Each structure stands twice: as C-alpha cells, then as structure tokens.
Amino acid sequence: QWTTASIVDEQVGAVREQIGDGRAICGLSGGVDSAVAAALVQRAIGDRLTCVFVDHGLLRAGERAQVERDFVAATGVNLVTVDARERFLDALAGVSDPEEKRKIIGREFIRVFEGAERDLKAQGDYRFLVQGTLYPDIVESGGGTGASTIKSHHNVGGLPEDLRFELVEPLRLLFKDEVRRVGLELGLPETIVHRQPFPGPGLGIRIIGEVTAGRLETLRAADAIAREELTAAGLDRDIWQCPVVLLADVRSVGVQGDGRTYGHPVVLRPVSSEDAMTADWTRLPYDVLERISTRITNEVAEVNRVVLDVTSKPPGTIEWE
Ligand code: XMP
C-alpha cells in the first residue's frame, strides 16, 4: 500500500539507483522541503552527501543557527555554510520587479553552489544536486501539466542553461503534508518537520520595492515579533504560515508620543492551507493581532502601521511577490 514507510523505501531506493557510488550536494534553505530531501538522501547515500547552507542575508532571525545546530544534531550530515550576504545584496541592488528578484536570487544561488562544489572537488566528484522540489512547485511553474507560469519558483524555473549538476528531486511527487510525514518517518524532530514553509528567495520577496540591508533589518525585526507572539499564543500548528511583508516604498503619517512619524507599513498575511495550492486567510484572535501590532510599532522604529491581509488564494497568492 501507499504508506509513508513505502514512500521512503521507494525513494531511498530510487536515489541509490540514480546516484550510484557518486556524491551529492544539497542546498539547505532553512525550510522543511530541503531538510526532508537532505535527510532522505542522507539515508540513501550517507556521508557521500554534503549539505551546503547559503546565508544569503534574506533569512529570518535565528534561522542560520537553527540549521547549523538543530538539523546537524538530528541528522549528523556534513554541513558547509557559505556567507554570501554581500553578494546577494549587490546583485539585488536597484531591483524592484518580483520576477527579476526571483531570477537573480535563483541564479546567485546556483553560482554560490557551483563555488562550493569547486571547493568540495578535492574530496571527490560531486555530480548531483539534491533539491526539495514538491509537486505544487512543478505545477505552478508550468513544468508538470502545461499550466501557465504563475511564479517562477527559483528551484524550478531559474536554473541556468549550463547547469553542471544532475538534479535529484526525491519529493517531486509529494504534497506538503506527505513531506512532513516522510520527515517524521526519517526521524527528524517536530521542530524541523512542522516548521512553517518559507520561500527560497526569503525576505527578498517580502520587501515590496528594492531590497537593502536596512530594509532587511526592519523586516527581520517585525517578522521575529510576529513569530514570537504566534508561538506564544500556541497558534503555530493552526496556521500554514504568516508572511510579514514590508511595504518599503509606501509611507504613512503616524504619531508616537509627541512626535509625528512618517514610516512604513508592514502587512500580516496569516493563511490556512492544506498544500499551498489554495489558502484562506486565518481568523487570528484580536488580542493576538493587537499584541503583534503594539509590539511591532513600539519596537521597530521604521514601522508605524500594521495591516492585515484578508485575501484568500485565489485570487491572492500567499506571498506578495
Ligand atoms: P504562493 O505565493 O505562490 O506561495 O501562493 C505558495 C507557497 O510557496 C512558497 N513559495 C516559494 N517556495 N521558492 C520556494 O521554495 C519560491 O520561490 C517560493 N515562492 C513562494 C510560499 O511561501 C507558499 O508557502
């Protein structure tokens, strides 16, 4: 029967067959998908897998430490962290268009991996690249069913022509809920398996407008507060994810103490979903919304307004870009 254990067995077998006695690199994004893909390939080929974690500077607060500490503790994988923060900021300078941002981030990702691969060549021939691509990613990028492209998810649409890796995509037939079950079956802890999804392009597609170091810092602070309060309220398992979006090109007038402010709004985008193909906006309790709003406007100097996105998907996508 089509049990989680049989999915794992089948995919472990398929990965062993595809990779043979070769070596593979897996880019960890900090999300569930790449973590489960990596754990599955680790199960199949052991220490012939090396994970590469790119700190592209578009991460949320604490995410790098979580990968370096929790994921390594759970799996024992070889992990290389590459600090590419400046490189991504340089590449994104002056760019506001969402699709252009996604393409740049996808392209830089591959280039950084290729750099990491060259460094690893001394230890053996790394020919395979593991990716945590899911079925919905393929469908929405137009790769699966001939559907038109909605967004070029960077791990499907943005690969350069001269890609020198053969792709290993052990989750490509699965939906998110199946991926979580596979992760548990592989012995990953709940904190990793039930981590909410986070897009590969990260905070880069949650800043509406140009991405700068200062704007990233602002969004990271607001996002950390929203996540803290949602966790404290015990709501993590009730919502699919809650993007916090910085409207960096919008300003509005506010007042704080005696002073007039002219700051930016952030948008809370809490959604409920089964597989991200469709979603409803989550009816968060008013007292939780109030705490998030009060804390963000008190603690993040550049933000003077918090607004709530009450759009389902469709017509809105989950991310704003
Ligand atoms: P949308 O915005 O298309 O998002 O409704 C659906 C789900 O996919 C995530 N997402 C991405 N994940 N690379 C990813 O790995 C991407 O480029 C990307 N864009 C969106 C999003 O967070 C949501 O869970």
Automatic annotation (TrEMBL):
<keyword id="KW-0067">ATP-binding</keyword>
<feature type="binding site">
    <location>
        <begin position="29"/>
        <end position="35"/>
    </location>
    <ligand>
        <name>ATP</name>
    </ligand>
</feature>
<protein>
    <recommendedName>
        <fullName>GMP synthase [glutamine-hydrolyzing]</fullName>
        <ecNumber>6.3.5.2</ecNumber>
    </recommendedName>
</protein>
<feature type="domain" description="GMPS ATP-PPase">
    <location>
        <begin position="2"/>
        <end position="195"/>
    </location>
</feature>
<comment type="subunit">
    <text>Homodimer.</text>
</comment>
<comment type="pathway">
    <text>Purine metabolism; GMP biosynthesis; GMP from XMP (L-Gln route): step 1/1.</text>
</comment>
<keyword id="KW-0315">Glutamine amidotransferase</keyword>
<keyword id="KW-0436">Ligase</keyword>
<keyword id="KW-0658">Purine biosynthesis</keyword>
<dbReference type="GO" id="GO:0003922">
    <property type="term" value="F:GMP synthase (glutamine-hydrolyzing) activity"/>
</dbReference>
<comment type="function">
    <text>Catalyzes the synthesis of GMP from XMP.</text>
</comment>
<keyword id="KW-0547">Nucleotide-binding</keyword>
<keyword id="KW-0332">GMP biosynthesis</keyword>
